[in-house]
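Chapter summary example.
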Amino acid sequence: MLRIFFKYKRRLLGDLCRSALRSLTRYFEVVAGSTLMPGVVAAVQTFGDRINFHPHIHFLVTEGGVDEAGVFHKIPRMDDTRLAEIFAREVLGLLVRRELLSPEWAERLLSWRHTGFSVHSLVRAKTKSEAERVGKYMIRAILALERLFFLEPEGKVSYRYGQNAAEQETMDYLEFIARVTSHIPDKGQVMVRYYGLYANAHRGKVRKTSLAAFPFCIIEDELPRIPSKGWAAMIRKVYEVDPMLCPKCGSQMKVIAFLADFSVVDRIIGHLKLTFVAAKPPPPQAAFQEYLWAADPPVEYFP
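The structure predicted for these 303 residues follows.
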């Protein structure tokens, strides 16, 4: 019942992320007995397994934080139930301050046995490869193409989800388009954020003052700069597909030139007599109007 606020007021997603950060730092403060600054990489996700609107936050967090004296305090375990309670109070307080929820309703939700808020902190990344795996999961795409099927006779889209893609949901293609487009961020909206020890402001402060009071390395200024990987190497790393492999003979290809001039590209396409036709053209306007009237309940569009 609260997700609709975040769907139509996208700025609240940033507030949701900050509410999760305040919940984490307050929990660390209670456990450690002092204010700690952890390192947090936060990713805002708006989708669930069924491509439905399900706003939630993924945190990649250091196991503890640094106090004012520069001492790192390790907190290896978390009480998810207690942390979820703090998070629920933070989010409900946010909605009350924004006048989207009355204080009475907030107290009523907190009195429920299951408030709908949850925290899962059992995943641990002990190596660099494990951290990369978690990071890929945090910024993964909203759907997997191998789980998507188009049922052409019915004009419907089927999507498999859940563990081992065991469950399946079939929907109208317009419903599918609506679900996918509902996850497009607003212009300028930041979906990946860095807080605490990983924030740019803190890293710059450490660099300027040449602080070296941390037992772990955060800034590696003394190491030689590693050159950026090429686009082909990045595609191989992320999608596990080699874009430089010839699909016909299987040999390795080489880049001869990059063409950025549209007129040159058009002349090459015309010379090679290449055509690009959609697999299925959009329905004509008459068929679209017929679909709107035949829908149950009827689909209405307002200006």
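To summarize the output: The first strand starts at residue 39 and ends at 47.
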